[in-house]
């Protein structure tokens, strides 16, 4: 029998299209051309250039956020809010809900529950963020505002300022949001360095990236974290400083290297071209017997 053209039944081509697109997107993501889930931060201590995974020295990269006195970007603006003593909330003081390896994120006042040394390498960055889901409504609201990827206003938050406190009051916690703009396509070699006393929990654009509690004063730098590249646009560095007995303090700085006019990698372009050709071939096959 001589072959004849067969009209695809309604929706047949479209049913094939999603799986085809999924394959293309997966290939592009593997080649670095399409953003995928953030990779785990790489932590190292102490945060000096001998331990950094980047070839460019930290101080040789440009500042995105800094509260370091004398740094070129100490005019980074943000807002802050006192959260009071989080440990007085039973849910937040529950080591099963807000702790790891028997160490609380927010110990009770005056070191009455110890001065835990919880390293960031002990935390799973995707699962071990502080959990506010069972906390008081006020704390839940504060956490929602902190991680809302916007500058919080009202409800106890300060106005925009470059004069962020360098630590919380004794036996309290301090929430801070720094906003910064990336005016080029991409920043690479993105690295966070910090020192703190007694605890610090950090998010970037709502994604948890760092958590640790350590006794003693804050040093420069106690920890460094290598992060994913950042695309152009507005970003938010969000964190909670925790104290449980003496005056807390912190130093924090985010640096990277701007890449203007970033373009997709050749492998990504090749995959995209193959995808277009494949789509054309699929459509042609749908018209055949």
Give the proportion of residues in helices: 10-25%
Query: Which series of helices and strands comes N to C?
Result: HEEEEEHEEEEEEH
Distance between the termini: 11 Å
**Global shape:** globular
What structural keywords apply?
3 helices; alpha+beta; 289 residues; globular; 18% helix; 2 domains; disordered N terminus; 9-stranded antiparallel β-sheet
Short description:
The chain is α+β, with helices and mostly antiparallel strands and 289 residues long. 18% of the residues lie in helices and 29% in strands. It has 2 domains: 12-33 and 265-287; 42-259, no CATH class.
Protein model, in words:
The structure is a single chain. The chain is an alpha+beta fold and 289 residues long. The chain has 2 domains: 12-33 and 265-287; 42-259, no CATH class. Helix content is 18%, strand content 29%. It is built from 3 helices and 11 strands; from the N terminus they run αβββββαββββββα. It has helices at 12-31, 137-146, 266-287; strands at 42-44, 62-66, 78-84, 99-100, 103-104, 173-197, 199-204, 207-213, 223-226, 230-242, 249-259. The strands form 2 sheets. Strands 1, 2, 3, 6, 7, 8, 9, 10 and 11 form a 9-stranded antiparallel sheet that branches. It has a two-stranded antiparallel ribbon with strand order 4-5. Helix 1 (12-31) runs antiparallel to helix 3 (266-287). It is globular. The termini are close together. The relative contact order is 0.22. Residues 1-15, 20-37 and 267-271 have low confidence and may be disordered.
